[in-house]
Amino acid sequence: MKSRLDQKRAVAIVYVAAMFMAVMDTTVVNVALPALGRDFHTGSGSVGLVSISYLVSLAVFIPASGWLGDRLGGRRALLGAVGVFTLASALCGAATGFGELVAFRILQAIGGAVMTPVGLAMLFRVYPPAERVRISSVLALVTALAPALGPILGGVFTTYLSWRLVFLVNVPIGALTFVFGAAALADHVPSFPGRLDVGGLLLSGLGLGSVMYGLCEGPSQGWSAAPVLATIGSGALLLALLVTVELRADKPLVDLRLLGNRMFACATSLYGLGSLAYLGALFLATLFFQEALGLSAVQSGLTVFPSAIGVMVGGQIVTRALYWRLGPRRIVAAGLLVMAAALGSMAQADGRTSLWLVRLIMFALGFGVAFVFIPAQASSMATITAAQTGRASSIFNAGKQLGGAVGVALVSTVLAAVGPSQENAAHATVRLSGYHAAFLVAAATAVLALALAVTIHDADAASTMKRRRNLQTAKR
Question: Which residues, other chains included, contact 401 with Cβ-Cβ below 8 Å and sequence gap of 6+?
């Protein structure tokens, strides 16, 4: 049996690698869509299925991840998910037709939907509450680094090499992660979570999947389009029915009673709102830099990248100096204010603004994100029992995924409503007001989240607020 210290490192390495692949995949592929559309002779209206099928499938299968992790054991579930994701990535890179590619993307999403929640549950089982803020800083860095790095790699691959590499890049990472995990992760005796709640699986999967599809298609088809209204409306009804069914079930697949836990509900909501503002802003910034400022995909990615550096610097300050002194409430509130200020500043940028100033603003955005994501994740399961961790992780990840999707849909809708360009007699010119309005909406989301941040009770997170030096002394 491997030592506890070894397991901390082993679980952290496997989970961080798996999370990096899953998060980066959502941004690196978008850059390659025009190129693969040309190769497969697929129009711009259909090529988006490559991304939409992945996001919808994630929403469908994430709710089952907690039950699966408890049923199979964390080690088998996590390694199986990494294996599926890696194999599917290889198949996507080798696809010979558009239909094949979409099918393999769905398979890839099944792996991604399981490995992130199961890995987080394993991580929080081996790291006691007092040590979670430290590991949360690493997770926040990956959350910021992967989407910032994705457009850079995607631009390099599609411009100079092949779009297939946006999928094949996962293969060596996934293979090494699988081999390392198979050798280093200890066997986890599975608990018996009860029989699979088929009703909960169908309602949550179809409900979340329908809402996710509507959110993805709304900005392009229009929110009044029949398919968008039908999928969001039916999804909302299914989710409402899910609440009724799961609250009555003895062993529900989606344990909504966990949202009665004050600290968990507040932290999960804040992480979701933070994802809405941040991931929506990253998506918007990439478009703004390319369409409005005329940067290439690689230059755009390099201009977004300082946000990851901001997360790294902010994370060190939060974990080493602030969290154990102040607790999550004041840190998260300060982070949301910094995010709002950075996004408001982006609403003033135009072609005359120095790129170095823009990069400084992106650094500030990442700095604020660290102040929100790290305390929220570290405190999220402070009052959750070990037996509830798997189910709680599924809900936490579903909230994060839905928040990111709503963020992209929200800024896309504002951009489309105001108009990214205007037609002149001779040509179309970029209309900056659309981008500026979308940045302001993202900033407003961060400000509104303040109302939730100030309701945090630091006493609920007390078990996570122990100084590292004191922990080391206690261990001696």
Answer: 55, 58, 59, 62
Residue 448 tokens, joined: 């509104």
pLDDT at 419: 62
HEC profile for 387-454? HHHHHHHHHHHHHHHHHHHHHHHHHHHHHHHHCCEEECCCCEEECHHHHHHHHHHHHHHHHHHHHHHC
Query: Is 469 buried (19+), middle (13-18) or exposed (0-12) by CB count in 10 A?
Result: exposed
Structure tokens at 10: 């082993």
- CB contact at 8 A, 370 and 137: yes
Vertex 263, ends 259 and 267: CA angle to 5°? 85
pLDDT at 1: 42
Task: Kindly state the DSSP code that residue 188 receives in the 8-state scheme.
Answer: -
Backbone angles phi, psi at 338, to 5 degrees: -65, -45
426 — pLDDT class (breaks 50, 70, 90): very low
pLDDT digits (tens, 9 = 90+) for 46-96: 676 787 788 888 888 888 888 888 788 888 889 999 999 999 999 999 988
Using CB atoms within 10 Å of the CB of residue 1, give its burial: 0 to 12 exposed, 13 to 18 middle, 19+ buried: exposed
3-state secondary structure of 83: helix
Query: Of the candidates 125, 412, 138, which has an alpha carbon nearest to the alpha carbon of residue 283?
Result: 412
In sequence order, what are the beta bridge partners of 423? 428
The Cα 456–Cα 164 span in angstroms is: 45
Q: Is 160 left (phi over 0), alpha (psi -120 to 50) or beta?
A: alpha
CA distance 260 to 282: 32
Structure tokens at 171: 């293969």
Residue listed under structure tokens 């120095």: 354
Tokens of 401: 């995924």
Neighbouring C-beta atoms of residue 4, cutoff 10 Å: 11
Give dist(CA 260, CA 165) in Å, integer. Answer: 44
> In this structure, what token pair is assigned to residue 459?
């006493």
Q: What number of H helices and E strands is found in the chain?
A: 19, 2
What is this structure's pTM? 0.83
